Structure formats: C-alpha cells, structure tokens
Amino acid sequence: MKKRKWPIAAMMTAVMALMLAACNSPTTNNNAKSGNGGGGDNVVNIGYSGPLSGPAAYYGERTLNGVKMAAEEINNSGGFEVNGKTYKLNIVSLDDKYLPNETAANAKRLVQEHQTPIIFTPHSGGVMALQVFNQTDNFIIAAYTSEPKITQTGNKLTVRIPPRYDGYIPTFTDYAMKRFGKKLAALPTATQYGKDWTEKLLPYWEKQGGKVVYKSSIDFTKDTDFFTIVTNALKEKPDVLFIGGPSEPTAKVAKQARELGFKGGFIIMDQAKLDEMQRTIGSYEILEGSIGVMPLIHSDQPGAPEFAEKYRTKFNAEASSESGYNYLALYAFVEAMKAAGTVDDPMAIREHLNEGLKNIPKEKQVYVVPKVGEDGGFESEIVVAAVENGKVVPIELIDK
Q: Contacts from 19-27 at CB under 8 Å and sequence distance 24+?
C-alpha cells in the first residue's frame, strides 16, 4: 500500500504546482497587486467590469478580448519599462451582467482588492455609476460608450474611447430618408444609452421633415420574443425602423420585422455592428438598406488588417470595433504610463494620455486617434457603412 501512495502524492504536488503557476500568470484573474507579482515581475492590475453573462455577454466578451489581446502582446514582448523597472499586465475581469449597480460593486472590489489604476467598462449606465466615486477612489474609467454625457460631467478621470454617437445622426437620417421615406418607428434598447440615443435622433428626424409614427423600446435583459412589439410598430406603416443594442438581439429584431413583412430600412445604433448582426442571422439579405457603423474587418486603418488576422486566429471569430478600440486603448494607457513615469498615479497617467496615443506603434493603430479632445474623448474618425445589394459599402459622412 505504501508503494502506491508515493506516486499519488507526487501527482497531487505537481497538480497543485500547476494550479499555483496558473493563478500567478499575468493577464488572468488573480489577486496579484501592483508591485512585485512574483518571479521578479512587477505586475500592474487593470480592471474590467462588463457583461460576461446574459444577453449582452457576447458584446462584453469582445470588449474584454481586445484588452486581453493587448496585455498578452505587451507581456510576451517582455513587458514595458517605467523608471527603470519592467512591468507586466494582469487583467482582472468581473461580470456585471450589464447592470450599473453591479458595475459599481465590481469597481469597489477591483480598487480595494487589486489596486487597479484603470477600469474598463463598456456601457454608459456602468460608467455613470462609477463616476459617482471614481475621482475620490482615484481610478480612471476607460469608458467604451459613445454617450456624450459621460464626458460632459467634468469628471477628470473619465476617458471615452469610441466616437460620440450624435456624430452619426445626420448621415443616418439623410440616408434612410432619401432611400426609404420619412416615417420612422423607434424600437431601441431600453437602457439609458438607448433612451439618450432616442432623445437625439427623433427630434433631428422631425426637424428634417420626418414623422415619428411609433415609439417604444425593448428590454433585452428580459425580452426574447419581439413579435408583439414589432407587430405594433409595423401597424403604423413605417418606412424606417430605428433599432439597436447588443448585436445579437438587435439582429433578431430585424429578422422578426422582415418575417412580418417589413420592406423598409434600418437605422442601427452604433452599439450593434452590421457584420455581427449578419453572423447572427446568416446573411445580409435581411439587413438590406441598413445603415450603421463600418465593420472593423472592412476598415482601411493601418493596424486593422493585422489585428483582424490575429483576432481571427486567437478566437476563431471576426474582430469588432469593440475589441479593436479597447485593444488600442490599453496600448495608449501603457504608453501614457511610460510617459508619465508612473503606473499607479491615475491623474498623471491621464495627463500624459495624448503622449501615449502619439507613441502607439503604427502597426498597433487599429484606429488612428490623434488625441484626446477637450471633452475627454478619443478624437477618432467616424466611419459609416450601409448594406446595399448584399454588401457592406462605405457611406460618405455629412455634417449638418
């Protein structure tokens, strides 16, 4: 019997050693804190709170994938140097189920347990919840939301990553009206973000001579069958449907509308992406006449093709703007740390973010962002596309 115990004990020791090694590996969730993370590496924890379960899980995973890809590349290249010390990154991610109160609780935990100088959050409700205390708790909000309000609060530690959504409205309106007509039915997501989009789009639509014939919203955290609400909207004979939210449920709304006989066009909020909607429903035929954000895989930005290929290889999926912008943002923050000479002073890092953007290697520039504007947002170019004859085509931006 004794002879049998030794191999089992040895195996248990080996398994425990592997588990400990995995727990201390950078870019995974663990309890390492900024400073010496073991093995001679100084580790900087970067926080993430977003939807990793529920109907928006796929959206949350894509934003997180971009952050993780950047961290892995930086770590695999030997880390980065600040004031003579070499650091590696550890991404600590928590699921907030798309609920702002969960985002706030997660952020408290990330700061208190992991000392994260930066927390990535991919929804406006979560960002607004964090803005209540992020300056007093001293961390940067890396906000993946196009909501203009988040950078109009004067919060000095908030950085908006994607372009403002109101920059899309003139082009979306002009295209949809000219191609389909002036009667609009609104069925956006019921989130605060959806409400704010609606409050901007509908008055602009009417100002251009259009008519809003139906207005409601869809709670994607609860609703999975859209038959009744889409039927009610179509009774008003709209020419255009305004829809949006996470790509997957938004695609199902479009599909339901077509199945009920809708022949018009779709204005798609910038959170939903044309290529991801197409993958959900199987073809672009259902999305004919849709106007939305140009998919990253069709982008001509300098770092986009290489990023898209790496993403495809790693995740067996197509890259999205969510993954691309968050990938770029982490590179910008790391370069800002280098320029600021600190990894744990959020205000100094924020103050050097323009230098960080300028120092991102060209091959990592999935999007070209020349600077952070006075409103605290990345000043990147808005690129719009539509589905015409089964293909994604660029649409010239108008400004009025």
A: 26/71, 26/75, 26/88, 26/89, 26/90, 27/68, 27/71, 27/72, 27/75, 27/89, 27/90, 27/91
